[in-house]
From TrEMBL:
Pfam families reported for this sequence: adh_short
PROSITE patterns named in the record: ADH_SHORT
EC main group: oxidoreductase
Transcription regulation recorded as keyword: no
Top-rank taxon, per record: Bacteria
Documented EC number(s): 1.1.1.-
UniProt keyword Oxidoreductase, yes or no: yes
UniProt xrefs under InterPro entries: NAD(P)-bd_dom_sf, Sc_DH/Rdtase_CS, SDR_fam
GO MF annotation list: oxidoreductase activity
Record's protein name: SDR family NAD(P)-dependent oxidoreductase
Gene3D superfamilies noted in UniProt: NAD(P)-binding Rossmann-like Domain
The family this protein is said to belong to: Belongs to the short-chain dehydrogenases/reductases (SDR) family.
Length: 250
């Protein structure tokens, strides 16, 4: 018997990178998986690679979230695990970060997390052992220059996750944040492609994996940790963060 036999899973940002890796990993372990993304082409590739049902949706839109969560629940017949992965990233000097960029990052990374979790909570609580796993970042706990907006959202992810974990623990719900760093997330654009003029690349060196000499780690490394946390193997893990960074912040 596989760890996720009979488990129903919704993964946001499932069209690439960590989201795709998580969707494929949990499906391979027996889960019924619905993957959501704004990118239909990415979703098509995810579905081609594994037994994953896909839905196009935007986590930053309340109406879109209502629609795709409802469709996912109809398809799955309920929900046992929610994996909040959808996010955007863009580097900039804080003093020249335009408000629309700040608002966009907040809307996807933090408001999107709230909207999807809020919509999914009744079904997760109904199971008596629901799990919310959110992909955060080491940026929520450690220095990440030129990423003030992104870091602010990831700090919020941790606080939100801990609050949910405490609030619903008596109903059997667990909530955990995974903090990757140095992972090939597939998130466009990459940090290096958006670094502002005059950025000191040495300030970013502290975020590189000790185990890979700075090379990006495949997203399936994070997927394996998510699979452990979301399964019964992680049944006593809640209200906390787990770093997957190859020792970058040791």
């Amino acid at each position: 018997m596989k760890r996720f036999d009979g488990r129903r899973v919704l993964v946001t940002g499932g069209g690439r990178g960590i989201g795709r890796a998580v969707a494929l990993r949990l499906a391979s372990e027996g889960a019924q998986v619905v993957a959501v993304d704004v990118d239909p082409d990415g979703l098509s590739e995810t579905a081609r690679l594994g037994d994953v049902h896909t839905l196009v949706g935007d986590v930053s839109s309340e109406s879109s979230v209502s629609d795709f969560v409802s469709s996912a629940l109809d398809h799955l017949g309920g929900l046992d695990v929610l994996v909040n992965n959808a996010a955007v990233l863009h580097a900039a000097h804080t003093h020249s970060t335009p408000l629309d960029l700040w608002d966009r990052i907040i809307a996807v990374n933090l408001t999107g997390l709230f909207l999807v979790t809020r919509a999914a909570l009744p079904s997760l609580v109904e199971t008596g052992n629901g799990v919310v796993v959110t992909i955060g970042s080491t940026a929520g706990s450690f220095t990440h220059p030129y990423l003030s907006a992104y870091a602010a959202t990831k700090g919020g992810v941790q606080a939100f996750t801990r609050a949910v974990a405490a609030e619903y623990a008596h109903q059997g719900l667990r909530a955990v944040t995974i903090q990757p760093a140095g992972i090939d997330t597939g998130m466009p654009p990459r940090v290096g492609e958006t670094l502002p003029e005059g950025a000191d690349i040495m300030l970013l060196a502290r975020n590189l994996s000790l185990l890979t000499g700075g090379a990006l780690v495949p997203a399936d490394r994070v997927a394996g940790v998510v699979a452990m946390v979301a399964s019964d193997d992680g049944r006593h893990i809640t209200g906390t963060e787990i770093r997957v960074d190859g020792g970058a912040h040791a």
